[in-house]
């Protein structure tokens, strides 16, 4: 129970079905690729050395090229977000402080921090 084969099965076959049922039908299931790293095992002490790893995609893709293209789009979006976070950090720092002031007015924040000193 919970061995490698079962976890791989869950990730590639079962998890997409569970998540897919929660999405709108045209939405692709995005639970991420799985990297199978080839290592010696008791049943196969001399695995094929030409394949050090294999990238496996969850069910729902017609082929690996389609899956790879989809995931590259996801990675590009993440990188774009990270770059924006770095580029706008000084401006966002000012806005974060203003946002904090909206949530807890300064007098209440001071009283709260004073009370916390004695806990």
Number of helices: 4
Beta-strand percent range: 5-15%
H and E string: HEEHHH
Ends distance = 45 Å
User: Could you give the count of β-strands?
Assistant: 2
Mean pLDDT: 76
Order of neighbouring strands in the sheet with most strands = 1-2
Structural class: mainly alpha
Describe the largest sheet: 2 strands, antiparallel
Percent of residues in helices: 55-70%
Describe this structure in words.
The chain is mainly alpha-helical and 119 residues long. 57% of the residues lie in helices and 7% in strands. It has helices spanning 4-20, 64-87, 89-103, 106-117; strands at residues 34-37, 53-56. The longest helix has 24 residues, at 64-87. It is elongated, with a radius of gyration of 24 Å. The two termini are 45 Å apart.
Produce the secondary structure layout.
Layout: H1 4-20, E1 34-37, E2 53-56, H2 64-87, H3 89-103, H4 106-117
Antiparallel strand pairs: 1-2
Q: What are the key terms here?
A:
single chain; 119 residues; mainly alpha; two-stranded antiparallel ribbon; 4 helices; 2 strands
Condensed summary:
The protein is mainly alpha-helical and 119 residues long. The chain has helices at 4-20, 64-87, 89-103, 106-117, and strands at residues 34-37, 53-56.
